[in-house]
Amino acid sequence: MSENIEKSTEYIGYGQLARILNRIHLSIFKFGKKFKTYAARFTFEQYKMKFGERDDDIYIVSYPKSGTTLMQMIVYQMTTDGSMDFEHIYEVSPWTRNASHNGEPVPNLPSPRIIKSHDFYYYFKKKPKGKFIFVYRNGMDTAVSFFHQNKSYNNPDEKFDKYIQNFMKPSKKNWFNFCKAWFQNKKKFPILYVRYEDLMKDKTSEIHRIAEFCNIPINDEIINRTLERSSFEFMKLHEKKFGEQPKKKKEKVYDQFIRKGEVGKGKTEFSEEATKQFLKSYNKHVQKLEKKIFPN
C-alpha cells in the first residue's frame, strides 16, 4: 500500500511542489539578506556624508575585543578635561557605523573627534582626513575575550571549542585578514600602531607616542588623569558607561564588557590542536607584517 502511494501522481506532485517552494523561499531569503546589507551600507554612506570629515579626526580602529574602548578612554582623557559626565562613551566618542544602524542623529562634537571603528580596511574607499590609531591584540587573547562576551551577551550555551573553530574559519572577514589588511596599509593612511600588550606593560610610554602622533599637548596632570581613568579598576567601576546595556531595566544586565583585560590568556585556554591551527594561519597572514611593525 505504501509503495503504491509513493508512486502516485499526487504524492510525487506534492514532493515537487514542496521542493519548488523551498527553492523560492531560499532565494527570497538569500536576496532579502543582500538587500538588507545594501540598505545598511547606503544608510551608513549617507550618515558619513552628514558626519563629515575634519583634518584632526582621530579614528580608533581595531578588531572587536582588542582594546578599542580602552583606547577611546585614553584619547578622550588626553584631548578633553576628562569629565565623566556622560551616560555612555559613544556620546563623546561615537561608533558611527553602529549609530547609523540604530538611526541615531549625527552628533555635534568639538574637535578633535574620536571615532570608533571595527571596519575592515577596504571599507574605506578613499583616504579620509584625520589619523588612525590601530589597536592590535594577540589573536588568541582576542578570541578568548570575544568568546566570553558572546556567551554573556548572546548565547549562554556557547561552547568554547566550537566558537574557536568559527573564529579561525577561513574567511575574508576573519581576524587574520582583518589585521593583515590594516598592517599592509596599501592606501598609505597615517596610522599609529599600538599593541594592547604594550598598553598593559607601559601605558605612560604609549600615551607619549599617541600625543606625538596626534599633536596633542600633554602635561603631568593629563598623563596622571589618563592613567587613573583608563585603569581596569576605574573602567570596571564605571562599566555602564562603556558596555552595551539593555534598554529595559528588567532585562539582563551585561556586566562582563570590562571583564579581565588579561594578557596571555589565549595560550592557556586554546587546546593543542586549536593552537596549531591558529599558528598556521597566523604565520601565513600576520607574523611577518607584525614583526615589521613591532620589531621588538
Compile the SSE list and pairings.
Layout: H1 2-7, H2 9-51, E1 58-62, H3 68-79, H4 96-101, E2 114-117, E3 131-136, H5 139-153, H6 160-167, H7 175-184, E4 191-195, H8 196-201, H9 203-214, H10 220-229, H11 232-237, H12 265-269, H13 272-285, H14 287-293
Parallel strand pairs: 1-2, 1-3, 3-4
Helix pairs in contact: 3-10
Fold and architecture overview:
- By secondary structure, the protein is α/β, with parallel strands linked by helices.
- The protein has 2 domains: 1-51; 53-293, 3-Layer(aba) Sandwich (Rossmann fold), CATH 3.40.50.300.
- It contains 14 helices and 4 strands.
- It has helices at 2-7, 9-51, 68-79, 96-101, 139-153, 160-167, 175-184, 196-201, 203-214, 220-229, 232-237, 265-269, 272-285, 287-293; strands at residues 58-62, 114-117, 131-136, 191-195.
- Strands 2-1-3-4 form a 4-stranded parallel sheet.
- The chain is globular, with a radius of gyration of 23 Å.
